[in-house]
Amino acid sequence: MSTNISEKTLQDLEFATVLQHVSEHCISGLGKEAVREIQPIPSRKQLFIELHLVNEYLSSFQSENRVPNHGFDNVTESIKRLAIENSFIETAAFLKIATTSLTVNELIKFFKKFKVQFPTFFELSQQIEFTTFVDDEIKKIIDISGEVKNNASTTLKQIRREINNIRGKIGASFSSALSSSIGAGYLDDIKETVVDNQRVLAVTAMHRRKVAGSLLGSSRSGNIVYIAPQATLAYSREFQNLVYEEKQEVIKILRKLAETIRPFTPLLEEYLDFLVHTDVVGAKAKYAKEMNAILPKITKEKRIYFKNAVHPILWRKNNAQQIKTISQSIELNEKQQIIVISGPNAGGKSITLKTIGLLQLMLQSGVLIPVDERSQTYIFDAILTDIGDNQSIENQLSTYSYRLKNMRNFLRRCNEKTLFLIDEFGTGSDPELGGALAEIFLEEFYEKKAFGIITTHYSNLKVLANELENVTNANMQFDERSLEPLYKLFIGQAGSSFTFEVAQKNGIPFSLINKAKKRVDTEKVRLDKTISKLQKERTKLQRNSDNLEKQKSKGQEHLESLQEKEDKIQSKLAGFQELYDNNQRMLSLGRKINEFLNKYFQNNNKKELNTNFNKWVVDEKVKYAKKNPLEPKTKSQKQKAKVVEKQMQEVIQKVEKEVLQKVVEVRKEKKIEEVKIAQEKAAYDYQINDRVRIKDSNSVGTIDRIDKKTVTINYGVFTTKTAFTNLELVEKVKK
Question: Residue 410 and residue 412: Cα distance in Å, rounded?
């Protein structure tokens, strides 16, 4: 795929404004620059990668696994200087490079750990080498405050030890001179101060010759002179020499560190590119979150279906003013190849056209778009636009001449993989001549199978759209009473310009409007009037349809609510049934134990009690084992089970042979009996107070009520309804 989207198209659709909005979400200056330079992505593979990266980053906002901090400093110049032979950079720049390396390595580890959630980020990060060498080497030499460490070299360590010793000697010698000068009364009240980063004595002017040292200045009044004591001067010179040696040694160490890291400058450039790209992706994702934007389905089938789409720039502007932005739904496909939108000015034709173009352009530039999740689209090779008044003063071209040159460009570049957008198609010349030429252009675009949207006021184009099989008329809805635009697109019918109606609403005298009507071709007025009438009728029908749809939706919600309540009630009834069965079982067990105890209280025979109780427990255990047979676990148990099963099979086969002859007779008798029982059951009329139970249930209840097909059974604690076919008679009501 090779995209062919011109700078003019980007300008017409105000793509730069969208990029400006995206760049506001960047966390770095380099990221902002990269966003403002975004262009449509020519490679389909790269486009899908970019879209999936943004979608993965967006999904992380709803996850506990948020993308880690990827902030970074601009180290571009530092990397360039580092690449120069025998060069070095300052310690602060080294620390920024170390932080950049650490940040990228943390991201690589993160995306590897959560590669299921971030598969595209994982693939991208795996292309970058993971190494802590740069960070480790810098941290060996430079501490967190930006100072070269003492142990960076033995020479530096020795120099700094000597510097500390000299500092001590300078302090001691100055203190000695200060004490002696104070004792002699040579000093002013302030005693000492600092000049040129050096401690000096504040000597009164009259005693300046009595203090040995170097004169470094005086006060404004001249009453005080500042003298560095002679005893400290020698130490100060030695100190300066050591400071110089320290600086040279630090430079030597930094050169060596730069030499160590220099082979990694290409990797550092990759790190920087990766962080800039991540910043751009993050900004796109944050912008998508702000706009409630999504990644629609991208199909191989040539189709655009944008449901509930909004213009991003208009949405942001309206949102700031707390105004609701009206969404549009529009579709282009093989059966609806071109849409011709007509209707009055200020009705929203141009913004609808720009919405589709801008959203398609954003998507093909790797930016998610504000549409419904059921939307889908196709990737076009070219997006061509002709929007607005393009009068060219520089080239001395009129609007019409400019538009003709643009049409020539359209005709040359249009094909089946092109999306074209033309605003006010055919304007700029004589209406009849310009309209005729516009018809020819439209037919050419149609023959080339290009997808497109055009807006127009020309009636001949509306008629042509109605005649061509895969071209559809559309209009922007207008309130027929207030003549205010509703900004909703309606597909399938051309729109009236409401020229005279709008003029009347804006205060033009009715007499003048009538004169204007008389000068217009009668058929044209009739056509416009008919279209206007149809549009009003359609608006009413649309309003009624919307109301019916809302009522239907509310009814459906009510039905679903009732169904949910019924399911909950049935669930509770089933629970009550199970609870009732368990209670009946517990009562049965309790009665049996009570029977044993009463008998024991009467005869006081403990042995009999134990015997009966143990026998009863064994019987219950056998019943339970039959219902819940244990699976053999050990090897010996499994072998024993196989032997027992084999013996049982032999016995079964023997019994089968013995009873085989009687089976036929028994079956016949059984069938006769079953038919007899079925006839009796079918013939029996259930009566109120009959004791019955539901099939496959142990609980017995009494019939409370009989309807046509159902009966109500009372279990004492609760009641339930069921069909006659589910009943089993336990006991007839006693007459």
Answer: 5
- Distance from CA of residue 54 to its chain's centroid? 8
State whether the Cα torsion 279-285-289-290 is positive or negative. Answer: positive
Does 166 lie in the same domain as 215? yes
Strands (E), 196-244: 198-204, 213-218, 224-229
Checking if the pLDDT of 714 tops 90, the result is: no
Range of the domain at 439: 304-506
pLDDT at 398 over 90: no
Residue that is last in its domain, among 478, 506, 534: 506
pLDDT > 90: what percent of the chain? 36
The residues, ordered by sequence, that sit 6+ positions from 231 with a Cβ below 8 Å of its Cβ are 173, 174, 176, 177
CATH number at residue 709: 2.30.30
How far is it, in rounded angstroms, from Cα 463 to Cα 473?
Answer: 9
Here the tokens at position 254 are 């930094």
| DSSP assignment string, 123-162 | HHHTTS----HHHHHHHHHB-TTSPBPGGG-HHHHHHHHH
Predicted local confidence at residue 396, as pLDDT: 41
Do residues 288 and 331 both lie within one domain? no
- Mean of pLDDT over the chain: 82
> What confidence score (pLDDT) does residue 393 get?
40
In a domain, 123, yes or no: yes
Instruction: For residue range 460-515, list pLDDT tens digits in order.
Output: 888 888 888 888 888 887 766 666 667 778 887 766 666 666 666 666 776 776 77
Whether 348 contacts 366, CB under 8 Å: no
Residue 126 lies in a domain: yes
Alpha-carbon span 20 to 22, nearest angstrom? 5
Residue 472 one-letter amino acid: T
Q: Closest Cα to residue 314, out of 642, 52, 17?
A: 17
d(CA 358, CA 668): 83
Residues 146 and 34 reside in one and the same domain: yes
The Cα–Cα gap between 77 and 36 comes to: 21
**How far is residue 50's CA from residue 282's CA, in Å, rounded to a whole number?**
11
Question: What's the average model confidence in pLDDT over 59-78?
Answer: 91
Residue 97 lies in a domain: yes
Residue 547 maps to a domain: no
Q: What is the pLDDT of residues 326-338, one digit of tens each?
A: 899 999 999 999 9
- Domain end (from 458, 473, 506): 506
DSSP E strands in 447-510: the ranges are: 451-455, 471-478, 485-491
Residues 81 and 183 reside in one and the same domain:
no
Q: Please, how many CA atoms are within 13 Å of residue 646, restricted to the half-sphere of its CB?
A: 6
Same structural domain for residues 459 and 382? yes
Question: In this predicted model, what pLDDT tens digit does every residue of 80-97 receive, in sequence order?
Answer: 999 999 888 999 999 999
Higher pLDDT pick, 214 / 482: 214
Place of tokens 């056998």: 622
Place of tokens 């300046």: 208
Residue 392: what pLDDT? 43
Residue 334 has, within 13 A of its CA and on its CB side, a CA count of 3
At 100, which amino acid appears? T
**Among candidate residues 371, 339, 336, 344, the one with its CA nearest the CA of residue 355:** 371
Considering the domain architecture, whether residues 312 and 453 belong to the same structural domain is answered as yes
pLDDT for 144 beyond 60: yes
Contact 727, 711 (CB under 8 A): yes
Q: How many domains does the chain have?
A: 5
pTM of the predicted model over 0.85 = no
Q: Tell me the β-bridge partners of 298.
A: 377
In this structure, the answer to whether residues 338 and 484 fall within a common structural domain is: yes
**Among 143-152, 238-247, 466-475, 625-634, where is mean pLDDT lowest?**
625-634
- At 576-626, the pLDDT tens digits run 777 777 777 788 777 877 777 777 777 777 777 777 777 777 777 777 666
| Domain match, 56 and 32 both | yes
Q: What is the CATH number of the domain that holds 427?
A: 3.40.50.300
Q: How far apart are CA 513 and CA 516, in angstroms?
A: 5
Q: What is the rounded (10 degree) CA torsion for 447, 450, 452, 454?
A: -30
